[in-house]
Write a structure and sequence with these properties.
348 residues, alpha+beta, FAD/NAD(P)-binding domain, D-Amino Acid Oxidase, Chain A, domain 2, 8-stranded mixed β-sheet, 3-stranded antiparallel β-sheet
Length: 348
């Protein structure tokens, strides 16, 4: 976006992956996100039809889309391809197969501005850790990202009959859905997910969610990785001419689906600050002042959502059906979707 706004910018993107590498399944954006990225003619997305909660294979919540916003989902590969084409068209140099951790300080010092957009495990953040002062708080549940060849037309949360796991699914292309699964540490160990191969993990998840997935098969991608969600915050978002954006700067729990949207909000805020301030350090100070309150607001909502799913699984494991029903009612009071943070859309 910077290169498109002013061709005098000489921009280099350092990408640790190879040109053909496109890991992952689907991603979500709000409609307004597609609009400000101007990707409407470059990529075809799937408009989700609302939200649903399935308990024991039966729908106990079935919501249409709220009037204020719709969720749009894309294949991650198609999304990255569209952004890559825009970079190439804007004469941005892309260095593939280059890990930012291997770049020398001398190399980085040649740039007027260094943007750390390298994800939650950011090498840029680690390099200047004493200046950014990051903190990471971990959730209690284990979770993993998978795919499934069942088309979930709505953002669908699934609690199987035995209440051992919680699934989150949404369609991102014809016949394909992202499938995020979480469970307590106890269930993670009792299912031996720490020992199973990717193939056996997919098979086991298919058994647990057999009613919900129907004939669908679970895919693990290159590996079956189970993690505890880390909520990342940084005391500072900039150090000298280095700035953090996206998951390198902040993470929000997947249950709210705002991570990609928030990363591009960072991009717009940074671009605006650079347009308004001649000195890089002044622009980065302005960016930090604008985004830090947003980070706090988004993370408060996303962390509450994470705690909700933790409580839900705890109640389900105890067989406390009343507790489960109360938590479902709390998430969607009056069978409606509450407004989301910063008026940017509705909570998931």
């Amino acid at each position: 976006m910077l290169a498109e706004s002013d061709r005098r910018y000489d921009i280099t993107v350092v990408e640790r992956g190879r040109p053909a590498e496109r890991p992952g399944f689907g991603i979500t954006l709000r409609e307004e996100g597609l609009s400000f990225l101007d990707l409407g003619t470059m990529i075809s997305g799937v408009h989700l039809q609302g939200r649903a909660f399935w308990k024991g294979g039966a729908a106990v919540v079935d919501l249409p889309n709220p009037a204020s916003t719709h969720l749009i989902c894309f294949s991650r590969a198609a999304f990255v391809n569209a952004l890559t084409k825009r970079c190439i068209d804007a004469d941005v140099e892309i260095r593939y197969g280059c890990d930012g951790a291997t770049l020398s300080d001398t190399y980085l010092e040649d740039f007027d501005l260094v943007v750390g957009a390298d994800g939650a495990d950011s090498a840029v953040r680690r390099r200047y850790e004493t200046d950014f002062k990051p903190e990471i708080g971990y959730g209690a549940n284990r979770y993993g990202w998978f795919g499934v060849d069942t088309a979930f037309e709505k953002l669908t949360i699934m609690l199987p009959e035995d209440g051992t796991m919680l699934g989150w699914a949404y369609k991102y292309s014809a016949g394909r859905s992202t499938f995020i699964v979480e469970c307590t540490e106890t269930r993670f160990r009792s299912n031996h997910f720490d020992e199973l191969s990717a193939e056996d993990t997919a098979r086991r998840l298919g058994e647990i969610f057999a009613t919900e997935l129907g004939e669908g098969s679970v895919a693990c991608g290159d590996a079956a990785r189970w993690m505890r969600f880390g909520t990342i915050t940084n005391t500072r978002l900039r150090h000298r001419n280095v700035v953090l954006i996206g998951d390198a700067a902040h993470t929000t729990h997947f249950s709210q689906g705002v991570g990609t949207m928030f990363a591009f909000d960072d991009v717009l805020a940074l671009q605006s600050a650079l347009d308004q301030h001649h000195a890089i350090v002044d622009a980065l100070d302005a960016y930090e002042a604008l985004q830090q309150p947003k980070i706090a607001e988004y993370q408060e909502i996303a962390t509450a959502s994470m705690r909700w799913s933790e409580k839900l699984l705890d109640c389900a494991e105890r067989g406390d059906d009343a507790c489960v029903s109360n938590l479902i009612a709390q998430r969607w009071p009056d069978n409606a979707v509450p407004p989301g943070p910063m008026n940017s859309g509705d909570r998931m």
